[in-house]
Amino acid sequence: HLHFKPLRLPLHHQYPQQGPHQQQQQPNFEQYGQYMRDPMVANMAMQYGSSLATSGKAYVEQNLDRYIPISRVKFYFAVTTDYVIHKLILLVFPFLNKEWGAYQSSGNEPTRHLNSPDLYIPLMAFATYVVAVAIALGNQGKFTPELLGMTATTAFVWFLIEIGVVQLAMYLISVSTEIRIFDLASFSGYKYVHMIICVTMAIFLGTMGYYLAFFYSSAAIVYFLICTLRYIILPDAAGSDRIAHGSKRRNNLLLLIAFIQPLIMFWLTYHVTYGPDAFEVPGKKL
């Protein structure tokens, strides 16, 4: 009888490797790195990225302008130092001004016409008002970090409410004017200049100084708005008889815009003479 021993093949013979056509090629990152370090390839990648970024920027600006008129907003920030100084003087001392000519809301830049609206002064005045309130309450020992955010939020909410009320009034009384939403926001924002004056007087002269500043500022902002907006809201009348000969609905709209300013001014500033006792932060009373 013949006996055959089992044949033991080496391991690589027992499990033959897959052919080249069946192997999964592994990525060679070193080769890719050398490829990207090629100056020609790097320049092509930079040109492609720059072209892609330019196209994306143009697409965003084109579609964003449908909802937010960026070009129109830039118009309201086209101011100079000379314009800002003279506009602040006009806001604080409007009774000294004798020229209240009409402005073109879309043609003239604020730097060319002193009566043109802008958003630079309202924005800076808004931020200064928040800081002034914090300083006033800090002098009373009632300042807290939450106060800054609450003051800014409250003022901004009342600003939106005011714009909404005026827009609703224009819709209900069916009055069509040339005043735009940004014009309205600008004229509404000018009251923050007077609010800064009220808070500053409260810091240095106390309650009496606050009320003196408030009554003067209220008269100044009302006079300024009536003299400026009457050329837009009452376009059919002429000269000093605009209010007398304007329609009753238009007169009411003009008076609403003007006299709502002192009410909001008082509501947002009166607490600096007593401290924000009426305001509360969740879990903590100021």
What does this structure look like?
By secondary structure, the protein is mainly alpha-helical. 64% of the residues lie in helices and 1% in strands. It is built from 11 helices and 2 strands; from the N terminus they run αααααααααααββ. α5 (81-92) crosses α9, α6 (120-139) runs antiparallel to α9 (191-233) and α9 (191-233) packs antiparallel against α11 (248-269).
Radius of gyration, Cα only, in angstroms?
34 Å
Extended strand count: 2
- Enumerate how many helices there are, as a single number: 11
The overall pLDDT, averaged over residues, is 77
End-to-end span in angstroms? 108 Å
Which runs of at least 5 residues are low in confidence (pLDDT < 50)? 11-15, 237-242, 276-286
In terms of DSSP E residues, the strand content is under 5%
Question: What about the largest sheet?
Answer: 2 strands, antiparallel
Topology pattern, helix = H, strand = E: HHHHHHHHHHHEE
Tell me the structural class. Answer: mainly alpha
Strand order of the largest sheet: 1-2
Write the layout of secondary structure elements.
Blueprint lengths: L10 H4 L14 H8 L2 H26 L5 H6 L5 H12 L27 H20 L5 H28 L8 H9 L1 H43 L8 H4 L2 H22 L10 E2 L2 E2 L1
Antiparallel strand pairs: 1-2
Helix pairs in contact: 5-9, 6-7, 6-8, 6-9, 7-11, 9-11
